[in-house]
Structure to design on (507 residues):
């Protein structure tokens, strides 16, 4: 019996030994490899070696050996041995020269693929290293958020084409949006920061957010830059969608705001084409057409067609929006109005009032004050009351609910003191959790009033609208324009019921 007990104990110990290894479960390893040592050491002078060895604290892989940057350029090849990376120089080294090698994001651990961003190695064949550096901050131009992992590139090529080629020096922004590029010699450079999404170390126009320095950057001493504000670059060929929204009516919607000087022309068909908002034109045909074509004229002089195939199912006549102003109720339809044949009725529980409408293209203007609207529930447009541009009548009665402004709404007045008011037009935006109000403030105007605000909490954004197109615009290399400045008020603005508030804004 003792013999069997001994054998069972022996097999249990043997099985336990066989199961040894890395424990399962636990948190996922998200730490990139850590450099333990280099040989020769980083920042060596009087460098005469033909290879450099890098030792890490775990097994590594080199993702793309062709994307390693050296300035001045060196032909190199690499060998990975478990935790070691060996770099071999294929070129002869120049005398009295500082070399700076940057591995970008090409070193990762073997198991989890955690990337070691921006590892650099510098040495000099002379008796000193080039010691200048530049530093700065990368932020999002629209939100002010600090951006991590953004490639900041320096180019010795001083033409605009430099941004389409590989950089001579590079760095990456950290979690605080900060970056630093070291081991620079005095001289002139071009600089860009971009979100290198495909990790090819090249800027891909209109696909990656970018910030340019349009002027040459001259470095004579250690330099700290102002914020590099990242934004999409303005594409001269925007994507434009043509959407029918009413009988013979189309919205032509661009995926970016149109710039001053850009326009759309009706190339085939007859109708009225009008600018509706910063990214939308509206087209109203005089008569039905099998198809129509619009030509878009871009800021760079190019033009291209926008096709609007007419669907077999034509949208019915209806209203798009109701706007309540101080002395007018405006009803906007989804097609142009030719004539109003009857008076419009406002209905309440105990009262009906007849209003004679004024016609303005696709809108009826009804003269009535916002206070008077409070007692009415809906607006009634009788059958066959309106004749539209394409010879259609409203063949059924239209009842439009009236949402008059409640009495407990409040007022906010924003004051811009003289020292912060510039000539540029401003777009003032108030945002609540479910609503956004935009107003235009002319350059020399020093105040703007938001009336009839619902109580609640608001955020304030102010765009310096330099080109006057009433929308925020990103950067453009071709136009040599930076992203338009965007000011974000640091606190939320709390609006109380039946309250008038003044707030001074210093930009």
């Amino acid at each position: 019996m003792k013999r069997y007990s001994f054998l069972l104990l022996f097999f249990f110990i043997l099985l336990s030994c066989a199961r040894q290894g890395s424990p399962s479960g636990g948190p996922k390893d998200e730490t990139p490899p850590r450099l333990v040592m280099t040989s020769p050491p980083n920042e060596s002078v009087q460098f005469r070696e033909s290879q450099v060895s890098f030792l890490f604290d775990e097994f590594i892989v080199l993702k793309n050996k062709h994307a390693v940057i050296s300035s001045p350029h060196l032909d190199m090849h690499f060998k990975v041995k478990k935790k070691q990376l060996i770099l071999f120089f294929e070129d002869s080294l120049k005398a009295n020269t500082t070399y700076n090698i940057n591995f970008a994001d090409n070193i990762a651990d073997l198991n989890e693929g955690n990337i070691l961003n921006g590892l650099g190695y510098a040495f000099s064949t002379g008796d000193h290293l080039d010691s200048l550096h530049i530093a700065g901050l990368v932020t999002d131009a629209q939100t002010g958020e600090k951006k991590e992992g953004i490639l900041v590139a320096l180019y010795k090529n001083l033409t605009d084409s430099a941004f389409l080629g590989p950089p001579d020096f590079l760095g990456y922004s950290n979690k605080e949006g900060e970056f630093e590029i070291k081991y620079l010699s005095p001289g002139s450079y071009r600089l860009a920061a971009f979100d290198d999404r495909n990790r090819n170390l090249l800027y891909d126009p209109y696909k990656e957010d970018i910030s340019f320095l349009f002027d040459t950057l001259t470095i004579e001493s250690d330099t700290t830059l102002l914020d590099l504000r990242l934004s999409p670059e303005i594409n001269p060929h925007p994507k434009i969608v043509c959407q029918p929204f009413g009988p013979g009516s189309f919205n032509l919607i661009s995926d970016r705001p149109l710039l001053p000087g850009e326009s759309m022309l009706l190339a085939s068909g007859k109708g009225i084409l009008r600018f509706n908002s910063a990214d939308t034109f509206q087209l109203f045909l005089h008569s039905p057409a099998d198809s129509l074509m619009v030509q878009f004229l871009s800021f760079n002089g190019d033009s291209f067609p926008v096709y609007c195939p007419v669907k077999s199912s034509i949208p019915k006549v209806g209203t798009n929006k109701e706007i309540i102003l101080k002395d007018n109720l405006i009803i906007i339809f989804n097609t142009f109005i030719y004539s109003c044949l009857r008076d419009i009725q406002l209905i309440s529980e105990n009262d009906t009032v007849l209003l004679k409408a004024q016609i303005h293209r696709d809108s009826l203007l009804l003269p009535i004050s916002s206070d008077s609207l409070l007692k009415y529930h809906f607006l009634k447009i009788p059958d066959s009351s309106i004749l539209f541009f394409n010879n259609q009548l409203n063949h059924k009665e239209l009842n439009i609910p009236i949402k008059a402004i409640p009495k407990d709404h409040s007022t906010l007045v924003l004051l811009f003191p003289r020292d912060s008011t510039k000539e540029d037009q401003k777009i003032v935006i108030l945002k609540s959790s479910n609503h956004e109000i935009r107003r235009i403030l002319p350059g020399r105007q020093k105040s703007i009033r938001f009336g009839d605000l619902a109580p609640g909490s608001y955020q304030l954004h102010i765009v310096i609208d330099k080109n006057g197109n009433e929308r925020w615009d990103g950067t453009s290399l071709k136009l040599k324009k930076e992203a338009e400045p965007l000011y974000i008020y640091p606190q939320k603005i709390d609006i109380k019921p039946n309250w008038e508030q003044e707030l001074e804004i210093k930009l």
Remarks:
- The helical segments are 2-18.
- Residues 35-230 form a domain with the Immunoglobulin-like fold (CATH 2.60.40.10).
- The longest strand covers residues 210-219.
